[in-house]
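It is worth pausing here to work through a concrete case rather than discussing structure prediction in the abstract. The textbook approach is simple: state the sequence, then state the predicted structure, then interpret. We follow exactly that order.
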Amino acid sequence: MRLSLLLEYAGSPQHWLRTVPEPERAGLDVVRIPEAYSFDAIGLAGAMVHATASVNIGTAIVKVYTRTASLLAMSAVSF
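Step two, the predicted structure:
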């Protein structure tokens, strides 16, 4: 069984970058980042990948209608 955490929209990206080691220490396997309002899931996921060693980072929701197909593809391979 894999354990996952879905981040909430509250807080700043700096807050989540500082706290990403906590789920790792708790033994969670996956952290998912939703996207809403001005919260950029792809950028935060890319930054969080470098802040952890064993937790898988992924997006839960990404607003595809605000990005072109080529931008989504480039974002997907960037981290």
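Step three, interpretation. The helical segments are 13-19, 21-26, 41-49, 69-77. The first strand starts at residue 4 and ends at 6.
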